[in-house]
Design goal:
heterotrimer, A mainly alpha (571), B alpha/beta (429), C mainly beta (353), A: 571 residues, mainly alpha, 28 helices, 8 strands, C: mainly beta, 1 helix, 28 strands
Chain lengths: 571, 429, 353
């Protein structure tokens, strides 16, 4: 219970801070605010609850089987470590003969340096909706993921950085990147933290969603209206600033500081002499313009803090917690329990409302602990279900093109999580997996087993270049042709990833005499599975038919596997 | 507002069914655009007619007063004279002498009022035809037209964008249409990245391994099929075709006479590439000509840049016409905004979006026309005001695309031209 | 000389941009040319002087040059024209189309010949009385190395009228014998031209002003140094001084506090100081000690200054700027010995921009 108490005291400290404006929080370093790890039994119990809910909703015959060991490890390593597993990791997993092998392996992955990097990259993409080069921000995020900082604490630090971490400009990026555009700041905040897109309610009440009215839009925007940035790079709030809006009826209204639940916060009378106010405003102006200016005064009424309080105090709809639970679910299943992810409202019911409520309640109970949530989900059978399989008799047969009845059932099963859907790798997942797959398997094994912490850091650095060039998959991801061209014709692909030197996969494979072994090893390193007979035959034929340099032939084979859809997706 | 209507019944499942029934489209197409599929017959017709677009993007904001809407003799007019054009009663700036004799296929729009005058937001507006809405990732013009005019199986690229200057460089994206319609983006070189085979691998090997990939992908697909895998397969399927189109970017293959006609500037060379591309069937090519942001020395800047624009644009129009391509190719000259009528202390003009100009030439355009009017000093639009949505509706209409056509984003219909926009019929054939 | 007392004594704000001015030898009468294509007369001697628009068709674009030849005023403009005016009647006398492109500057020789430069890259000589063309010559490329039209902005005459200097956009200067019209020397100031090959792909800058020293051994060249962001006149103002005989650059004065173009320069009669005006959005008057290169005085002005005229004897300066005309006074601490040459006839009358 020790962790629990520390977490509590941190919450207490931050509350105190809100009250008297002193930097009490700084006596507790960020690293000490960490969520309590959930016990094994808790996690497994939750995983079983997930399975019960899902199994109750999908007809048994539509439920896909659970993955093989190798396929599960590939999926879960991509989801927890942000990369494919190495050959040695696969072998070890397959050889494990304990009841608890899933739990132990996932626990190890979650506690590995890999997880912190991966979770950082995922949160960066979620929060900034782009791959940024903002090193400070990414360093801050890495700290939170290493420390497993609870999601509510991160929310507070990111949304009220000047109060939560007054000496630290790193978490300001979320606000800073959107400061020039109040609409973006308001809507992005609402979409990202609460799963609610209010953009459509700006000019009129939301035309499709009864829940969202103009006052919600301007209500949320009001919380950001006073936010500014100092020259030094900190965020601040002014003492005044109100939004007004015109309704479609032509009426002009004052916006309230109103949260999505409809609850609004009245602003207390500003208790300042006019001269003092003017002086403060001057100081703020100065701080906006000059590097050397003093830290400007903070008003006692701080709208963003109020928004944070309202969001965390919302015990009826739980937008804040529900949103991240739904987003984590979608990350692991390719689809949210509420879908689309920014449409949490009464007109768009969850596919499994009880499950969402249950996960949300557990998440709050576990102190907004993202790791436990992710861990529990990956332990479920639901998570481990395979893609729908064809019978293999017809070329390119898709469920959609088959009988409409089947198709409808297929769709039903997919939206109810009866089977998995392929998920495109994120830029970092792709880049890292390419590095892992093309590394010399023996040398990689040694790195993983000796000083992985350090090697993983270097790997992360090396992955940046390609990651920056790779498209962040959106809702309707299609592999861009520019990527196919890069894989096909870039010097980096040919000379680095497919290098024939002794540090790379091709260099390793070329030393193996048996063609059959070459094929098996290439499959293991790149796709994490043995080839089926047909694949083996096709490649053997290629190997034997091709005259010329054997090393080049091996390069081609490695290239083919790296360009396969199987490599490009998590499935 | 009435343009939103509930279409909850159009859920993903029914879309999938439609996808399945639209034979020949395949999975690379976006699953969410149900209406696009519903209108497939019409689209095929359009594709058959082979319509093309070249967008001359005047990045940074060219001055309407030094191009299409001069105000000679007014305090705002600047030093340049107006010259008479081939259209009776219509004058343009003396900086555009070649264009003045070639307005037969061109319509000038002098009445854009787009309100937004900062580069970033205005670029988004003019490249998407609507104000950005937080949370909705609208496709850019090139992606919409690549989708509407292109052929999904096309061997040539369907959206090529050239932007060599770094200032204001923005790639443009396919937004919710998906990566299939992202531009082939040229920045440093005249040749797209990774479109040519490395010397380290022979052409035979390159082809063989692509075939091997195709074989293995098919084996995999027999066991696991999914639209995402199909999309991946189709992207690789386009590689060899695109590589075979590398010659389109090589202007050395043009005669010296033609190259000399386009002239020595990079803009001229890129216009020549654009002509080669549309000739080969590329539906959308953007040639960005940066950077017109003349806060200081507006007149000198326009003496340089207009000379380039006037020469390259007129050469391009002549060349397209000579080759019989202008009837099916729409050439647009447009930037993110115009420039202030008032002249600042540095003899510059600043950002201005309230009353500015653009041109449309060729396909579907009633040439020799001028639409709209600004006041005598050019401060406001007094006749025929158009916004970005209206311009887009006009562009679509010129190409024979129904501007009210909708894409479905989840349950939300999104018309390809912004809500309430109207094509400018008088300049359309 | 000490310019610390330089201050505005009269100001005439307006809507136009004033590009050039000419003052009569008695400093009583002023003519100036503007962006409204008009030439105005201003009686400086009157208490509440008001400008008078000279009558006639005159110019149809910006008026960029004005010289006084006896009773005649000759102006030039971007309309490619030279226009003759009668200063007594205020009537237009004569108009000729003198260039194929904008005329940037004109000057008057002591023997009453008008010299003009324009963007057709020609330097031309005219009889100030009858407008007859007496010659055309150039040493300036029509196109910049980057395939854009070049511009021939700058012109100066030595005070005795024997030498002509011309300077263009890319920083090339030619010096000519004013009688034979033969080129006698060339100088280069490539720093005055900024070509941006990567970000914006066009250029800015050019030589905007030239000034022979009173003994015509030196030539000052004014413009703007290298610019980072060529959207704005954001570069340092820049002056280079050359020894004409050796062709060597003997001084370079660049000031990043006074940004923008050096539009016009004038040497002090003793040849020690160089006065310059110009600016970006704002204007400046700057004084440099040529020997040391030190900037001994600087005054900021609310408008970019396109032209000026300084009367050292009477310690008066007149500036023509963006939307304002101003008269300044200054004091000379050490009265100049009588033998120091005051402004010559030619200098006074070739005030232009």
């Amino acid at each position: 219970m020790l962790f629990h108490r520390i977490a509590d005291s941190a919450r207490y400290a931050s509350k105190l801070f809100f009250m008297n404006g002193m930097a009490l929080l700084s006596i507790l370093t960020q690293g000490e605010i960490r969520a309590e790890s959930a016990s094994r039994d808790d996690l497994i119990r939750l995983a079983e609850q997930i399975d019960r809910e899902i199994e109750a909703s999908v007809e048994h015959h539509l439920m896909a089987p659970v993955l093989s060991d190798a396929a599960y490890l590939r999926r879960v390593t991509l989801d927890l470590a942000g990369r494919i597993p190495s050959v040695s990791e696969l072998k070890r997993y397959e050889a494990l003969d304990t009841q608890d092998k899933k739990y132990e392996t996932t626990k190890q992955l979650i506690e590995s340096p890999d997880f912190a990097y991966h979770q950082r990259n995922e949160l960066d993409t979620l929060l900034l909706r782009a791959l940024t080069n903002d090193r400070n921000w990414r360093e801050y995020l890495l700290e939170t993921t290493r420390n497993n900082t609870p999601w509510d604490v991160m929310f507070r630090q990111i949304m009220t950085p000047e109060i939560s971490l007054p000496e630290d400009t790193r978490p300001t990026a979320f606000l800073k990147h959107r400061l020039r555009d109040l609409d973006k700041l308001a809507n992005d905040s609402s979409v990202i933290w609460f799963g609610v897109n209010i953009g459509c309610a700006k000019c009129h009440d939301h035309p499709l969603v009864d829940d969202w009215r103009q006052e919600h839009y301007y209500g949320i925007a009001s919380f950001f209206k006073r936010t500014y940035q100092t020259k030094k790079g900190m965020i601040g709030e002014r003492f005044d600033g109100h939004l007004r809006f015109d309704t479609t009826e032509g009426e002009t209204k004052d916006a309230a500081f109103m949260y999505l639940t409809g609850l609004s916060i009245p602003e207390p009378q500003l208790d300042l002499e006019e001269a003092t106010l003017k002086e403060y405003q001057e100081k703020i102006k100065k701080a906006e313009q000059e590097d050397s200016a003093d830290t400007p005064p903070q008003p006692s009424f701080q709208p963003r803090s109020e928004l944070v309080k309202l969001a965390l105090g919302d015990e009826t709809q739980n937008f804040f917690a529900k949103n991240i639970v739904n987003r984590i679910w979608a990350r692991l299943f390719g689809r949210g329990i509420v879908h689309p992810l920014d449409q949490i409202h009464s007109g768009n019911p969850a596919s499994h409302p009880e499950l969402l409520n249950l996960l949300t309640a557990e998440f709050i109970k576990k102190q907004y602990d993202l790791r436990s949530l992710i861990h529990a989900i990956t332990l479920s059978n639901t998570y481990a279900r395979s893609l729908p399989t064809n019978d293999g008799s017809k070329d390119n047969q898709t469920p959609v093109e088959s009988d409409p009845q089947d198709h409808e059932e297929f769709e039903e099963a997919e939206s109810k999580f009866g089977h998995a859907v392929p998920r495109p790798l994120s830029p970092h997942q792709l880049s890292l997996s390419l590095l892992i797959a093309t590394d010399h398997p023996e040398k990689l094994k040694e790195k993983i087993e000796t000083n992985w912490e350090q090697s993983r850091g270097q790997l992360e650095e090396r992955s940046e270049h390609l990651a920056q060039k790779t498209e962040i998959p959106g809702e309707n991801f299609q592999t861009p042709v520019s990527e196919a061209l890069w894989f096909s014709n870039s010097g980096e692909m040919q000379n680095q990833y497919l290098s024939t030197d002794s540090n790379h996969l091709v260099g390793y494979l070329k030393e193996i005499e048996s063609d059959s072994e070459v094929i098996s090893n290439a499959f293991a390193a790149i796709l994490g599975r043995p080839p089926i007979q047909e694949e083996r035959d096709t490649l053997s034929q290629y190997l034997s038919s091709r005259s010329g340099d054997r090393t080049e032939t091996i390069q081609q084979i490695a290239w083919v596997l790296l360009c396969s859809p199987e490599f490009r997706f998590n499935h | 507002m009435e343009h939103h209507h509930r279409s909850d019944t159009l859920d993903r499942r029914s879309m999938m069914r439609l996808v399945g029934s639209a034979s020949g489209i395949g999975y690379a197409a976006n699953m969410n655009q149900i209406n696009a599929f519903a209108q497939d017959a019409l689209n095929d017709q359009l594709r058959a007619s082979g319509k093309r677009v070249i967008l001359l993007w005047l990045a940074g904001g060219a001055s309407q007063l030094e191009t299409w809407d001069p105000k000679p003799g007014r305090p705002t007019g600047g030093p340049f004279a107006q010259i008479q054009t081939s259209i009776p009663g219509i004058g343009i700036s003396e900086l555009m002498p070649k264009m003045s004799t070639r307005l037969g296929e061109t319509a000038i729009i002098r009445s854009l009022n787009t309100k937004i005058a900062d580069h970033g937001t205005a670029y988004e507006l003019m490249d998407k035809g609507r104000v950005n809405e937080a949370g909705v990732d609208f496709p850019h013009l090139g992606a919409i037209l690549a989708r509407e005019l292109g052929n999904i199986e096309s061997k040539v690229p369907d959206y090529v964008s050239m932007y060599t200057s770094t200032e204001g460089r923005r790639k443009g994206s396919a937004g919710f249409l998906g990566g299939r319609y992202n531009p082939m983006f040229l920045t440093d070189a005249m040749m797209p990245e990774n479109i040519q085979r490395l010397e380290a691998i022979t052409d035979t090997d390159h082809r063989d391994r692509a075939e091997l990939l195709d074989q293995l992908s098919k084996i995999y697909a027999r066991h696991h099929s999914h639209p995402s895998f199909e999309g991946h397969h189709s992207a690789y399927g386009r590689v060899r075709g695109l590589m075979a189109s590398d010659y389109l970017f090589d202007i050395e293959r043009e005669s010296e006479t033609v190259r000399n006609q386009y002239g020595p500037t990079q803009f001229g060379q890129q216009c020549l590439v654009a002509r080669r591309l549309v000739e080969a069937g590329v539906p959308f090519v953007k040639v960005a000509r940066a950077w017109w942001d003349s806060h200081g020395q507006n007149f000198e800047t326009h003496q340089e840049l207009c000379a380039d624009l006037d020469h390259c644009m007129s050469t391009l129009l002549d060349d397209l016409k000579d080759r019989g391509l202008l009837e099916s190719t729409l050439v647009i000259s447009l930037g993110e905004f115009g420039r202030t009528p008032s002249i600042n202390g540095s003899l510059g003009r600043d950002h201005f979006a309230s009353a500015w100009s653009c041109t449309l030439s060729g396909c579907g355009i009633q040439g020799g026309t001028v639409h709209g009017k600004t006041d005598q000093d050019g401060n406001t639009v007094v006749e025929g005001e158009m916004n970005a949505g209206d311009l887009y509706a006009t562009i679509f209409a010129a190409l024979g695309i129904d501007h009210t056509k909708e894409y479905m984003l989840g349950s939300r219909p999104i018309p390809i031209a912004d809500f309430d926009s109207t094509p400018c019929y008088p300049i359309l054939t | 000389m000490n310019f610390s007392t330089l201050k505005v004594t009269n100001e005439w704000p307006g809507q136009e941009i004033i590009f050039c001015l000419a003052v009569d030898p008695n400093r009583q009468r002023l003519w100036f040319g503007c962006s409204d294509a008009s030439v105005y007369y201003l009686p400086l001697n009157e208490e509440k002087a008001e400008r008078v628009n000279l009558s006639g068709d005159g110019h149809s674009s910006y008026v960029t040059g004005a010289v006084l030849a006896g009773q005649k005023l000759i102006t030039s403009g971007y309309d490619k024209k030279l226009v003759w005016w009668d200063t007594e009647s205020g009537q237009q006398i004569k108009t000729i189309t003198a260039h194929d492109s904008w005329i940037r500057r004109i000057a008057l020789t002591p023997d009453h010949r008008v010299i003009s430069v324009g963007d057709d890259m020609q330097c031309r000589v005219w009889d100030a009385e009858n407008g007859e063309n007496l010659g055309s010559f150039t040493d300036h490329e029509k196109m910049t190395p980057h395939h854009y039209p070049s511009m021939l902005y700058a012109l100066d005459l030595s005070s005795d009228g024997s030498c002509i200097a011309t300077g263009d956009r890319v920083g090339h200067i030619a010096i000519w014998n004013a009688q034979t019209l033969e080129k006698t020397a060339e100088l280069e100031t490539p720093e005055m031209y900024t070509w941006d090959p990567k970000q914006r792909r066009h250029s800015i800058g050019g030589i905007r002003s030239l000034a022979f020293s009173p003994d015509k051994t030196k030539l000052a060249v004014g413009g703007m140094g290298k610019v980072g962001n060529i959207d704005h006149l954001d570069g340092p103002s820049r002056i280079e001084v050359f020894d004409i005989n050796s062709g060597e650059r003997i001084q370079m004065m660049e000031n990043s506090k006074n940004k923008g173009l050096v539009e016009q320069m004038q040497w002090s009669p003793d040849g020690k100081q160089l006065l310059s005006v110009g600016g970006n959005h704002k204007g400046f008057i700057s004084v440099h000690e040529v020997e040391t290169g030190e900037q001994s005085h600087i005054v900021e002005h609310s408008g970019h200054i396109h032209a000026f005229s300084t009367d050292f004897e009477n310690q008066v300066m007149i500036t023509a700027a963006h939307q304002r005309l101003a008269r300044w006074s200054f004091q000379i601490e050490d009265p100049q010995p009588q033998e120091t040459k005051s402004l010559t006839h030619g200098d006074e009358e070739t005030d232009n921009s």
